[in-house]
Amino acid sequence: MTNLPTRTIGPFTVSAIGLGCMNLSHAYGEPATEAEGLALLNRALDLGVTLLDTAALYGGGANERLVAQVLHRRSEFTLASKCVLDMRGGQRILDGSPDAIATTLDAALGRLGTDHIDLYYLHRLDPNVPIEESVGALVRAKEAGKIGALGLSEMSAATIRRAHAIHPIAAVQSEYSPAVRNPEVAVLDTCRELGIGFVAFSPVARGLLAGSVRADDYVAGDIRRTMPRFVEPQLSRNLAVIDAYDRIATEAGITPAQLALGWLLARAPHIVPIPGTRSIAHLEDNVAAATLAISPDTLAAVDALLPPNALTGARYAAAAQAQIDTELLTGEELDG
């Protein structure tokens, strides 16, 4: 195993860049085969990645079953998963009730083949359940030894403070990249103030900042087909901006994905990006970003090109946005 620079999330010391496991089983069309997924997970661990992030929702449990196959290397990494969003009867559900959380957690432990998950997140805020009740369920799970630390995903500063008042929160996870700046409204400062680690998912903007989105010809099952900024006519306008971003990366001698990851690491020491990929070559490029030195001039050029709201089109379709508690940017577009 290679040693990478590290950062702190709650009680855990993890590699400065982790691995989001979602797209091995979920969300971007045909999933990786079991052999492909397992090869990528093992390569990530070999490269020194020490944070693996999964969830009950991903592939209806398939992703947790995949991650279970590297738990013989458990001493090498911190295991994170999530509840509240789940699949029930073949349908996606949002249920933050204590009973649902307990049910999802026990099923996750079974799929993972373990009795303990290091870091367990509430995947989304259930507006029908007070956050205090959902956090209380995690506290009881911690007391029972089933989880080690508590996390929140896509939640606002106000919700984070309410949750943290019940029990210390170790990590908050939200979408953050040079192209998606919502955490800058209030969440990053709140995490810094409260000593909470911030985990940046989709740090290369679902491929937009990694050179992998050039047209809206996504395969069936790809969630970008429902995201306004990833389809026409918005996509062409956004790609004109991304072309300029790609030129900044080329001039710096790094890949667009490495530029995005380096930009995130430079923002604050409590940020840990978790890019996902099915490609071992892309994985190796991503991990290499943990040790790159990117000049202040290059970072400033990214900021100048991509201020908040630089992209055209909403981040989520209306139904998905309804499940997001994270603050909106001033003037942010909403679908519908």
TrEMBL record:
Against PROSITE patterns, the record matches this protein to: PROKAR_LIPOPROTEIN
Ranges for domain NADP-dependent oxidoreductase: 16-305
The protein's superkingdom reads Bacteria
Taken from the record, one Pfam family name reads Aldo_ket_red
**Annotated keywords:** Oxidoreductase
What the entry lists under SUPFAM superfamilies is as follows: NAD(P)-linked oxidoreductase
Name of this chain's protein = Aldo/keto reductase
